[in-house]
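Entry 14: structure prediction run for Initiator binding domain-containing protein. Input pasted below.
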Amino acid sequence: MESGDKQSQLNANELIALQTFLSDSDSAAALCTTEVVDPIGLQFIPKSTWANYKLTSVSALHDSYFSKKNSVTRRFEHKLWNCLRITQVFPSLTKIIGVCWVDNRIIKVYKHPFAKFLSIQCVDGALFHKQGNFSRHGFVDMSEQEAQQQLSPEAYADVDFRDVHLIYHQNGQFTADATEESIANCKWVDPAPATRVAALKLNNPSAEAQMTLE
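Run finished. Output tokens:
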């Protein structure tokens, strides 16, 4: 029993050490400053946004693009794709960017480094909550059982399904070889207008008739 407790403690300590390394690695941070990437060559999207970009460091891209608040010109699905394009070509940068392809369909997410790279403060709420970015864009978590059935043990060796997730797009529109048009269909839909209409009808049953007359 004592041996089992020690083993559990060791595994927990290893996970903590791994997450700390992934989040705060000085060597990875240095790579972001020195590694030069070509947004056009990496096929960043939307292509129209990056048409005039030249070679630049990942650190500069972080400051000018990835860390900025999501908007019409900086959509989450585009940021995710562009992050994955970087780590696909420069796998050593996964330690600080926080996402990488496991295969053509499945994405591994180191949630703390990824949130840090996108300057997200509320990690679970912004990413994995039912109203979070992944959920609202059609991504679902892969269960441990699914991982065991579909992946090699090496592919999910560092996945704890808490701080390190495996996700995939439920409609298959976001894959490693997806087109920009396909990814555009993963666009986040703001539920607020529908919510406001529902609340209006609930609080004022005659509102719908009045709106129709107007």
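Notes: The domain at 31-185 is CATH 1.10.10.10 (Arc Repressor Mutant, subunit A). Will compare against the previous run tomorrow.
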